Amino acid sequence: MTDHAHNIPEEFKESLMFDPRPREEMNDMVMESMHTVGKAYWWAVGILSFIVATSLFGVWFFMIFKGMGYAGMNVPVFWGLFIVNFVFWIGISHAGTFVSAILRVFKAEFRRPFTRAAELMTTFGLASAGMYPLIHLGRVWVFYWMIPYPNQRLLWPNTRSPLVWDFMAITTYLLSSLMYLYLPLIPDMAMARDRSTGWRYTVYRLLALGWRGTEKEWAYLRKAINIFAWAIIPVMFSVHTIVSWDFAVSMKIGWHSTIFGPYFVTGAILSGVSAVMMVLFVIRATMKHMKYFIRLEHFDALAKLVLIFSMSWAYFFYNDFLLEWYGGEKTGHEMLANLMYGPNAWIWWSMLVFNILIPWLTLWSKKVRRTPWLLFVIATLINVGMYFERVVIVTMIPQVNRFPFAWGDYVPRMEIFISIGSLALFLLLYLLASRLIPIIPVWEVEEGHHAHSLRKYGKEYIPTVSDLD
Amino acid sequence: MSKKISRRDFLKLAGAGGAAAALTGCGPASRYVRREPYTQMPEYTHPGKSTYFATTCFECSAGCGLLVRTFQGRAIKVEGNPYHPVSGGKTCARGQATVEGLYNPDRVQGPLRVARGAANESINWDQAIGVVAGALTQYQPDEIAFLLGMAPDHLFDLVSELAAAGGARPPLRFGALGMFEARNTLLKATGRVFAQEAMPFFDMANADVVFSFGANYLETWVSPVAQARAFSSMRRGKPGRRGYIVHFEPRMSQTASVADEWVPIAPGTEGLVAAALGIMVAEARGQRVPAAYASLNLEDLLKQADVDEEVLRRLAQIFAEAREPLAIPGGSALGQINGLENAQAILMLNAVVENLGKPGGVFLSQVAAVRDDAYHRPNTLYEIYQLIKDMREGKIKALFIHGVNPAFELPAALAFDQALEKVELVVSFATFPDETARLADYILPDHAGLESWGYQKVVGVGPAVVSGAQPVVLPVFDTRATADVLLAAVQKAGGALATALPYKDEVDFIRQSVAGLRRAAGGHYSAADEATFFSRFQQFGGWWTQEAAAAAPQAASEQPLSVAAPEFDGEGELFLLPYPSPILGDGAGANRPWLQETPDPTTTVMWNTWVEMNPETARELGVTDDDVIRLVTPYGTLEASVYRYPAIRPDVIAIPFGQGHTALGRYAENRGANPARILGVKVNKAGDLAFAATRVKVEKTGRQRPLARAEDRVGVYGDGE
Amino acid sequence: MAAEEKGKWGMVIDQDICTGCNACVVACAMENNIPFVGEDETAYGRGMHWIRVERQWEGHFPEVAAVYQPVMCQQCGRAPCEPVCPVFATLHSETEHINLQVYNRCIGTRYCANNCPYVARRFNWFDYEWPAPLDNHLNPDVTVRGRGVMEKCTFCVQRIKRAEDEAAAEGREVRDGEVQPACAQACPTDAIIFGRLDDPESRVSKAARSKRGERLLEDLGTQPKVTYLKGGARYD
Questions:
Q1: Could you state, in order of their start, the residue ranges of all structural domains in chain B?
Q2: 8 A C-beta contact, residue B331 and residue B224
Q3: Option in A79, A146, A398 nearest C107 (CB)
Q4: Which residues of chain A have pLDDT under 50?
Q5: For a Cys-Cys bond, which of A204, A319, A449, B687 suits A193, CB 3.0-4.6 Å?
Q6: Residue A76's closest chain B neighbor by CA?
Q7: Between 1.10.260.40, 3.40.50.1860, 3.30.1490.20, 1.20.1630.10, what CATH number should domain A2-465 receive?
Q8: Which tens digits make up the pLDDT trace of C9-57?
Q9: B92 to chain C: which residues are within 8 Å by CB?
Q10: pLDDT band for position B44 (50/70/90)?
Q11: Mutate to test the interface with C, among A62, A64, A74 (most CBs of C within 10 A)
C-alpha cells in the first residue's frame, strides 16, 4: 500500500485513507498536538474556569439558598431554560454515539479520525445535561429521593414517573457512553504511555490497563467495541425518546404527541452532528497537525449527514405541526397562533429558518460542504435553531393552556447565566481533554490505512476497502 | 423586623403564646383578661384545641358577626357567625383579612406625640389621658369637635353623651363608603316618598325581579354580605323560580356583572329612566298612572335620557308582570347633582308595583333600642364641609378623630389638611399611622377590631340588630380603647362632666347600654338577669330580634315627582365615575397584604390603581393598556394606568377608590392613586357629594406602568403585543 | 349514580350565584397560610392563590356579560399530576379520595404542575415571609411551606381530618355539612357546596346531579370532583 503512495492521483490523495503516514509519525503528531499548549490555551482555560465557577456554580448555589424565583419561571411556564438546556445537551451528546457507534456499525469509513472527538462530546454533553435536572429541582438537597435504594424512609421512587425513567436512562447512557469512550482509548493510552514521562506517564499507565498490543488483546478489544457499539445504539435512542416522553406523556396541548420520540431523536442527531462539525473546525484550526487527520472530505461527509437530518427533522416537525393545525382543536390552534404570531414568534420562525432553510439552501453545494468556516457558521446556526426548538417546546408551548385566563409569559433571568456557565463547562472539559487524551484514535486511522488500498485496473485507480473484522 | 418562620419557630411561638390570654365570658370579672400559667390553662384553652369568640367585624360599618378561631391566645382565622342575622356565617374578603389588620407590623404600637410630623416620641397613657383631659377643660365645649367613623357604635353613643353633657358639638360621623353610597340621599328620598326618614330595607331575598340603579349591593353598599346572601336566595333559593336582576349603571360594576341584564345608561339619567319605567310599568299593569307622575311626559323623559324605548318597554313588562318586583336606588345613581330626584324616582317604582311592606318589597328598618331607638345617620359631605369651614375659621380648637381618615377619604378640594393646621390640638385615635394621624399632634391608638369591646347598631337588614364585639385576643401592642381613654380623661377633668358620665370603663358603658335589651320584645334569647344577658350577648355576638322588625312604609306620597336632567361639573368629553374598590373598601383595607394581592373581581388587577376605559375610547385617545394617563378635573390631576374595560360606556371612565396612600404602612404606601384628589365638591340636594357628576379631561403622559393582573391579557383579550 | 361514585368528598360551585367577590380567595389564604408575594411577583404569574376566580367575558359592549368561575384543584379521581411525580409527593388519598400534596416529600420537579390541565398548582419560588407579628395568625394545622415545594388546594384536608377524627371518637359517620372548607364557609352567597359524594342524600350529591352541572375538562378523563353549575340568564 505504501508503495502506491507516491504515484496515486491527486483526487485520492486528498483522502486521509489514501494518504497514509507511518504509524510512528502519526503517533508523534498526535502526541505533539497534546503537548502544545500556548498562552491562548491557558487564557481560555482560565476564563472558562472563572465562568464555570461563578456563572454556573455561583449562581446555582445562590439559587439553592435563595429560591428558584431568581430564575424566570412562573405559572404556567414551570419549566424554563433549565429543561431547554437539558434537552439541548442531551441532544449534543447524541453526536458521539451516532457518529461513533452507528457509523462504526455501518462501517462508514470516514468516521475514523473523529470518533474520539465525537465520543468526548457525548460524555461532556451528558455532564452538562446531567446537571440540569438537579439545577432545576426546587429542593436539590434531597435529590437522592429519586434514587431507588432501600432507606429508612421506606420510600421508593415512583416508577410510573417519566422523570424516574429519565433518571435511569441518563445514568445508563452516561455509564455506557463512558465505557464506550474508554474502550477504543485503551490502545491510544498505551501509545501515550510509551511516549510520556512524569505524571502523564502514571496516568496513562493506569488507564492503559497494561495494554501491550497482542493479537489476543486486539481480538478482545474489537469484540468489546463491537458489542458496545451495537448495545449503545438502542440506549441512545431510548434516552432521547424518554426525554421526549417527559413532554409527550403529559396532558399538555402541544406536548401530547406520538411523534415526539423520533422527532426528538432526529433533532438531537441534527444538533449533535452539527456540533461535531463545529468541534472539528475548532480542533483543526487550533491544534497542531490536525489538518492532516481532519480533512475536507470529513466535513463534506458530515455536512451531507446534516442535510439529511435537517430534512428528516423537517419531516417530523411538519408531522407534528400539521396534526395540531389540521386537528383544529381550539387550544391547539391558540397554541400554534401563539407560536406563529405571539410575542415571541421570532423564536419559532428563526427555528425554521436555521433548521430548514439555511441547511437546505447551502449544503447541497459541494463547495459549501468543503468550506470549513462556512460550515462552522451554518452548524452554529443549526444549533441555535435546535436550541430555539427546545425553547419553543419547553417554554412557549406551556404559555397557552386550556384556560385562557391562566396563560402566561416567560422571560429568562438567572437561567441565562447558568446556561452560559454550562456552555463554559462543556468547553472547559473539552479543552482539558484535548490536551490529556489523544483526540485522534491513531490506531483506528492506521487500521483504516491498512484496510484501504488502491488497485489499478488498466488506467483506472479503484479504491478498495477490506473488512478487518 | 421581619422574621422567617420555620416549623420549629412556629411551634415555639405557639407554645409561648399558649401561656397567654384567656377570656371569660361571664360574671362581672368578664372585663378583665387574665394571664394564666401554662400549667393551669382555663378549661377552654386545651392545647391543640381552638377557642372561638363571637365578635363584630370592624372592617366596614355593615356590622357583620364574626366567629374568630383563636388558638392559644392568637387569632387564627375569621369565620362567620352562623347565628348572626347580618352575615349568617358568611364573610367577605375584607372580613377575612381582619387578622392581617390585627397583626399588622405597621400598627401604631403605643401612644405617640407626633406634633404633625415634627416629632415621633412615645408617651405613656397617663400623659395621653392628660392631653385629652387638658383639652376637655382648656377649651370651650363648642370649640371641641369629634369626627368618628361610619358605624353607629358604642363610641358614638358615648361621645354623643359626652358632648351632650358638656354642651359640645355633637360628634360627626363620616366615611368614604358612606360618601360613595350617598346614604343621606337615600334617607332623604325615603323621607320624601314614604313620609318617614328611615333607612329602607330592601327585601331582596324574597323578590323575584330586582331593578337596581347604581347600588353596588354586592360590593360595599350598606351591608354587602347580607345583601349577597339575599341575592343568593333570590336567585337560587326558591325551587323552580330564578330571580332576575337588571342593573342600570354606566359602568358594569361587580354587582352589575352578576345581574342578568346590564343597561349602560348615561350618568345622571337614572331618575329619568326610572320615571319612564314607572309610567310604562303602570301602563303595563293596566293601572292608572299614579298622580306623582302627572307632571311628566314619557316622550320627554325618553328623549332626555337617550335610551332605547324598546329595551325599556321590555324591561317594564318584566317588572310589571313580576310577582315580587323591587327597585333599589344607590351609589352612583344618587351621587349626582340630581341624585335626590333620582332616588325619589327609583323609590317610586316600588310604589307603582305596590310592594311596600310586602315580602320582597321595601321596608323601613327598625333600630334596636340601645340608649335610644333612633337611627343616627352618618353626616353628609356638606356637614363635613361646615366642620372644615369652622376649623379654618379657628372656631375649632380641639379635634378628636377616630375611625375615619379624612385626609385620605375626603375630596382633596375641601383642603381638610390645611384646615387641620388651624386647629390647635388634633388627636387621632387611629390604629394605623394613616394620613390624618400623621397630621395630628398625638396618636393615641385604639385597639384593633379583634381586641376591642363594643356594640354596633345595624340597619338595612331586616331584624333590629345590635352586634356585639369582644376582644378575642389580648392587645398585641400598647394600645387602649378610645372609650376608656375618653372616660379616664373625663374623670381626670372632673367637674360636671365626670358626674354626667359615671361609667367605670368602656365595658361598664356597654353593659349599661345594652342592659335594656334584656326586656325588649322579640329578642332571640332571654336571660334571667343582667349578667346572664351580657354573657349571652357576648356568646352570640350581639342581640337581635327573632323576626324581621322592619315596618311597612306608608303609601307613597302623592306629591308630584320631579325629575331633573343631569348636571355636571368641570369640562371634558368624559364623565368620571369613581367607585369604592370591592376589595379594599374605603382604603382602610389597603394595608392588608392579602387584600392587596386579591384580584379586583372585574378587572383582576392587584396592588395598584387603574383607569377603566372602553376599548373604543382608548383607541380614539390613542392609549392602550398600561399607558399612564393623566386625569384632569377642575380640582386636581391624577395619574394611573389604563385598563381597557369592555363593559363601560364609551363616554365614561371609572377609577377605583382605595389606593394612593401616602401613609398607612408598607403595604399601602406609594401605590396607585387616590381619586379623592380629583373629586369635585358639588353636593346634591341631600348634601351628599355628587361624586359621579364630574367631567374629566384625559392627557397622555407617554409613560407606561404595567398593572399586575391575575388574568392573562393575551388569553382573555387576545392582544398579543 | 351513587354506586358509581368512588369519590368521597366533592364540591359544587354554582356559577349562577357566584359573584366573583374573592372572599373564598382570601379565606383560603388565611386558612392555609398562603403567602402574599407582592406586586411584581404576582404580575409575573407567581401569585400563590389556590383559587383563581376567572372572570370571563361574553359578548361585546353593550351586550356584554361576565361569568365568574373559581378554579382550584379539582381533586381528580384520575389525577394527571399523580403518576408523574418521581417521589410520590403528590398522591391519592385512599380514605378521602383527594389529591394529597406531601410538602415534606416534594423535591420540586414541578412536573405535576406541568401536567395539571387546570393550572391549579402553585410553586414556592422563594421562602416567603410574614413580617412579625403578622406571622401570629398562621394556622397551626397547616404546614408553612418552604422554598422549592409545590402546593395547591387541599379541600382543607385538615378540617376534613379533624371532623373525621371527632366523628370516629363519637363512633359515627361525618354528618353532611359538618366539614366546610374555608372557601365554602366564607362564600357569602353559598355558591360553594361541599360534602360527601358517596352519600347520595348529601347536599353536594344532590347539587352535583343538577342538569346545570358540568365538570371542567371532563373529556380528559380526569374525573374531577368539582361540579360547576352553569348560570342561566333566562327570565322564567
A1: 7-102, 112-176+370-544, 179-364, 574-717
A2: no
A3: A146
A4: 1-5
A5: A204
A6: B712
A7: 1.20.1630.10
A8: 999 999 999 999 999 999 999 999 999 999 999 999 999 999 999 999 9
A9: 21, 23, 186, 188
A10: low
A11: A74
Q: Which of C42, C99, C122, C125 to mutate to test the interface with A (most CBs of A within 10 A)?
A: C125
The residues facing B65 across adjacent strands are B56
CB-based burial label for A345 (10 Å; 0-12, 13-18, 19+): middle
Instruction: Report the half-sphere exposure of C106 (CA within 13 A, side-chain side).
Output: 26
Between CA A46 and CA A358 the distance in angstroms is: 35
Contacts of B91 in chain C (CB under 8 A): 23, 27, 186, 188
Residue A335: half-sphere exposure toward Cβ, Cα within 13 Å: 28
Pick B574-717's CATH classification: 2.130.10.10, 2.40.40.20, 2.70.50.60, 3.40.50.1110: 2.40.40.20
The answer to whether the pTM exceeds 0.80 is: yes
> Do the chains contact at A161 and C118, CB–CB below 8 Å?
no
Q: Domain spanning B7-102 has what CATH number? A: 2.20.25.90
Residue of B nearest to A331 (CA): B715
CB within 8 Å: A161 and C217 = no
* Residue B35, SS3 per DSSP: strand
Question: Cell 490536525 appears where?
Answer: A290
Contact B199, B190 (CB under 8 A): yes
Instruction: Please provide the size of chain A in residues.
Output: 469
Task: Look up residue A16 and give its DSSP letter.
Answer: G
Tell me the three cell numbers of residue B404: 375615619
What value does the mean pLDDT take over residues B475-483?
94
Per-residue pLDDT tens over the stretch B60-110: 999 999 999 998 888 999 999 999 999 999 999 999 999 999 999 999 999
The pLDDT value given to residue B37: 60
Q: Is the dihedral of CA B72, B75, B76, B82 positive or negative?
A: positive
What are B's interface residues with A at a Cβ cutoff of 8 A? 710-712, 714-716, 720-721
**How many other C-beta atoms lie within 10 A of the C-beta of residue B169?**
17
Chain B residue with the nearest C-alpha to that of A407: B712
Fold of B112-176+370-544: Rossmann fold (3.40.50)
